Amino acid sequence: MRPEDFSASASGRLTRTPEGYWAFVPDPLPPEISWSPALAAALSAADRAVGELAGLGRVVPEPYLLMGPFVRREAVLSSRIEGTRASLTDVYAWEAVQLKLWNDRDAEDVREVFNYVRALEHGLRRLADLPVSLRLLRELHAILLEGVRGSSRAAGEFRKGQNWIGPPGCTPQEAAYVPPPANELPAALDAFEKYLHQESALPPLVRLALIHYQFEAIHPFFDGNGRLGRMLVVLLLCSWGLLPQPLLYLSAFFEAHRREYYDRLLEVSTRGAWQEWLLFFLRGVENQARDAARRAARLLELRRSYRERFQKPRASAALPGLVDLLFECPVITVPQAARRLGVTYAAAARHVENLVRSGVLREAGGKGRRRNRVFIAEEVLAAVEGP
Quick check: 229 and 216 in contact, CB under 8 A? Predict the structure, then answer.
């Protein structure tokens, strides 16, 4: 990291560490925001899109129809930014039978993504009795890294050493960005938490953009900062009441514009480019809110069509129950179906075969397996993760 890259309008200060390299300490939030017509228009469009998505979330009768698939899609996409290769199907399969199945993907990647699901679901539950805080972030970090790569690097604890961001194998001197040294971390985190809890006249979506930048600039953990910083966005959207369900995620937008995402964050640090970062972030919010609304509509329409096909008079209630279950578990086993529906294995197997014949389910890996038979609701998965 080179001092000459930082202008007089940088959003913090450079400090030289005892080891002789430079690190950056961001100023406490909030910065001074210059309101331009473009920024006002971007905020208006993002607010409108989030409001429409929130309205859709309030009329969905069963929250699991959207919450489960959306949480898992976000876990896959957020982890993919960090280099994992697991798919949404892999994650659902892992939940169904807890082992690697018909593909050749690395089970370690699937565990990392599944940990993201666990951490986000834990965070959403904890919002009932704990505000978004440093304590909650430590809890989430411990779950995120449990039993996977990085677990030995102070999981659940703020770092007591230096980290940096750059190409693999680079040194702090060669890094693109070096966050605050460990001795500066407590003060930076204290100011960060105070801003989380204080009243603000700034619009919530603008505050959200500032908070996301600040967390990434502080980079308080040795590992997992990117995933946790993206998780923080949806937790605050729900905590602040902007969304009734966790339906809006930015990882797909950040992944599609990865280079610009990193450049915008860095330019806030080096030259105080808040306007550009806010425009980028708000564009992402609008884009993903509208994308989530379209995916939600696809899922609800698919469920309606399935119910029309399988909810018949005098028919067993277990079959439409299994159809509904597919929106929560689109990769399923017969024992899992029997357990969730409260029916015998034979009854569950009969209903699963019925859906296979109807084309709603497909057996993974082809027929002929006697153990660990897994069935996929491909139309449900396509509604969640298709373009």
Answer: yes
Rounded CA separation 220/203 (Å): 26
CATH number, position 328:
1.10.10.10
Domain that holds residue 102: 3-294
**Same domain (yes/no): 241, 120:** yes
Closest CA to 177 of 11, 381, 385: 11
What pLDDT, on a 0 to 100 scale, did the predictor assign at position 373?
84
Q: Which two tokens stand for residue 295?
A: 């995916």
Q: How far apart are CA 65 and CA 68, in angstroms?
A: 7
Overall number of domains in the chain: 2
pLDDT of residue 104: 45
Low-confidence ranges of the chain (pLDDT < 70): 98-106, 150-152, 313-315, 365-372
**Residue pLDDT, tens place only, 251-286:** 999 999 999 999 999 999 999 999 999 999 999 999
CA 66 to chain centre: 14
The answer to whether residue 304 sits within a structural domain is: no
- Residue 203 near residue 47 (C-beta atoms within 8 A): yes
22: alpha, beta or left, given left = phi > 0 and alpha = psi -120 to 50? beta
Q: Whole-angstrom Cα distance, residue 334 to residue 346? A: 9
142 in any annotated domain: yes
DSSP SS3 for 176: coil
Strand intervals (E) in the chain: 12-16, 22-26, 331-332, 362-363, 375-376
Work out the burial of residue 299: count CB atoms within 10 Å of its CB; fewer than 13 is exposed, 13-18 middle, 19 or more buried: buried
**In this structure, are residues 88 and 96 in contact, taking their beta carbons and an 8 Å threshold?**
no
What residues contact residue 10 under an 8 Å CB cut-off, 6+ apart?
A: 24, 269, 270, 271, 272
- β-partners of residue 26 are 12
Contacts of 195 (CB under 8 A, 6+ apart): 28, 29, 30, 210, 211, 214
- Find out whether 317 and 282 touch, Cβ atoms under 8 Å: no
Kind and range of the H or E run holding 378: helix 378-385
